TrEMBL record:
SMART domains: LDLa, MAM
This protein's encoding gene: Malrd1_1
CDD domains to which the protein is assigned, alphabetical: LDLa, MAM
Gene Ontology CC: membrane
Domain of life per record: Eukaryota
Taxonomic source organism: Galbula dea
Gene3D superfamilies from the UniProt entry: 2.60.120.200, Low-density Lipoprotein Receptor
Keywords noted in UniProt: Disulfide bond, Repeat
Protein name per Swiss-Prot or TrEMBL: MALR1 protein
Amino acid sequence: MFILQNSSSITQIARLRSPKFRQSGSNCTLSFWYYNYGYSVGAAELQLLVDGLKHPTVLWRTYYSEGNQWLKAVIQLGRLPQPFQLSLDKISLGVYEGVSAIDDIIFDNCALPPPALSCDSPNRFWCRETKACIDSLLVCDLVDDCGDGSDEDNCNPDLQCNFEKGLCNWEQDLEDDFDWVRIEGPTPTINTGPLKDHTTGTARGHYLYLESSEPRQFRNKAVLLSPVFNPAGNRTCLFRFHYHMFGKQVYKLSVFQRTLSNTKGWLLWYKFGNQGNRWIRQTLSLRSSKPFQVLVKGIVGDGFTGDIGLDDTSFLGCTLYKGHLPAISTTTSGTSVPATLPTNNCTEKEFVCRASAHCIQMIHKCDFRPDCPDKSDESACVMEVCSFEDKHHCGWYQPALEQTSGADCIHTTNIYKWELGRGANLYPGQEKHCPLIDHTTCTEEGWYLFADSSNGEFGHTADIGTPVISLTGPKCKVVFWNYMNGSTIGSLEVFYKTSNRTSKLWTQSGSQGPQWNRAEVFLGIHSNFQVVFRAKRGVSYMGDVAVDDITFEDCSPLLIPGRPCTSEEFTCANKYCIPKDNLCDFVNDCADNSDESPAI
């Protein structure tokens, strides 16, 4: 089907109408191929005309020539319980010069679910009138999946919100940068955001959206708080919602769960980037032994075409809690409380082995050699080998975050800091400046540590260090793999730090290419010190710094043997024994330089 000009009027409209449809199912989509090419070919739009509604709903638009090619459009219709019709309008102002055509129109999954003779499975729901057998997870989700409304009967309204009459029992967070906006119809900016809500499928329905235009700035966040729920226990508690992320500069939507009112909680789910002009359903399972709350956080992208929509939130198998969440004390240091010590005769200058109550010198704590039978002297120390595959920091910690009210504090969201990452979690385009695979497993599922440059500003630094290391041996070195690729990479540095002195041991700056690179830093003999990795942010977010497989090699200190040194060994002034091959090799193997003495 193509358009021929047959009018000389200034404003010309060609209109193609569909037959009238009685209704559509919840998964209904329409697709077609279109051709719109020419110097002044003009705009076109697809409208939804629903019986009983005065104004049409725009479902799709094209504004200008899109080249000498056929393009595919996919339109989400969803559940429309009233009779409706579609109208494809082609508009030309003044001179019409070009070709507009449409072909291969397909309606997909538009029928209601078929009736079933039985529906005995515990995970299925039998619709009352249509006799369809649907998934029980679709019950009370604000969508008429049955076609007779029976799956939405007898639902608790306090566990649902379609935002038609407000926020229900959701609340705007007071500690974020701006608020979610309730709206009907399309968002103000073209080529981003929904054209209609999810509940009614028309421009008359309401939903929430995140406005990304000015005065909003990149990484500004808007947080929505759910009511508080009782502990889930062994029950299955589900959170269902529909989200819309359409636009070239859409950034991030995430969901958190928390049990303390002044923390951001733990991440349940997130999605990055443009997901297409459609509403997408998401179901999350919630578990907690304490009263909890859900947080929905949207983050603004780097431009005005980054609107994010939210609609039809519902909870299944959850019960409301009559009360408020407790708050974590802001005076806590973020360090763990030491375990109760066994009865012992150790002095203040000795370490108590947890299982045996043996006493060892404090210099032997965190020296890469277990001196306690239960190895408890090395338990609160940096791990000798760390691949981050267990999603653990291996003892490495960030002093700047320890000084806040807990590392989960919502105020630390935009701080330039180290965090765990993996390729499977990257949003589209992020692989250009962040590793797509880790070094350990060489897969997208492998974990690494990286400083996220989408946080912070130019010149900001992020430190991550070891707990205090008591003593190291003469050959001690740190070996690690680093990934520094991107157009605005800052730098990575390694420091040796004591209570009164900090020394730079290694540095690297600028892009090093899209691969993991090995680095080695010699430490040698030191006592009561820390190793610190410092990332420095470049001028933009296109410059993440990552490390993986950090290993302390040959770092355990020398042992004084309970015997005389052999003929193949040299006796150091401090009674250590070392191989004679290590004499006069410019390395302080004895730890007192006696193996490098000119008198040998």
